[in-house]
Amino acid sequence: MITSIANYDDAPRRGSVAEPLDLTVLIVNDFAGKEKNWRDEVRAVNAFLRQDVGRTFRIVIAESEDFRDAPVPNALTSLSDKIEIAYFNETRSAQLKDAGVGAVKTEWVLVIDADCEPNAGFVRNLIAAVEKYPDFDYFISRAHYGLNTPLRRAASMFDRHRDNECEDRRVYYVPGHGFLARTNVAKRFRAPNAPTPFLATPVRQSRILSGGAKVRFVGDAVADHEFSLGFIWDFNRELGFASYLSRRESHGHSALRVLGSLQKAMFKTFASRHRDFLRWTDYPIALALQVFAIAPMLYGIWEAASGRIENRRSHFR
User: Exposure string (b/e) for 196-227, b if CB count within 10 Å is 16 or more?
Assistant: First the structure.
């Protein structure tokens, strides 16, 4: 078993769940490349080792067998007493998460993407939510790109606004990561073997919400998501690709219809959420970002429409 260095007072508290919370942190990288550099995993592991939580928990990195021979950096091998790298015969991130969850023996599992860096109180706030609402099955955290520049605020508004909409309301959005769940419940809701996590995650979400699981949003459990213009390009390309494929069986699947639907969704997000994220001086940046998104969306739509499903080169896996 792998324990983190966070190990303080585990005295039980009145009205709480069993102490200490039996927890595994599962880290999965949803980006793929020909070579494995482990940079995101190192950053994520270190962030979890800095958690200000009075519990022990296990840290497992789930990776594909394709990378078993990839050299693991000293930054991870030096922590062999605290973490484990588990290899599975899967190549897609959604299936890696399912395989990793399937191997977890603890009562609770926290699933997170490697390119997200949790803040110091991330685990503590999720555990506090479990103790306050012990009859819930899933606890959803908040992720954003940071709010310290106009571009980051605009990108967070367009891509991460669902987090705000879940706060103090019925949760209708369950992301593919950034959640703490009862392991036996999470094992029930597997993702389909889809060519992109942008297709797999909505199906899993639908199964969770329609399958009787109780979901709670925890707004003070925050992780900073990796951010760059390259990532925004990849994100919107994948969004266009997945959106076209998801509409392929319907009458409204033409390229222009799909692009129009995506752009309309961005405009609606701006109209309803701009006060939550933007300053007045950010508005030109937000408009520019919406225009910027057109090109990668179209590229992803073209890939799907032309049948480039399995052999496309995508950073997402």
Answer: bbbbbbbbbbebbbeeebebbbbeebbbbbbb
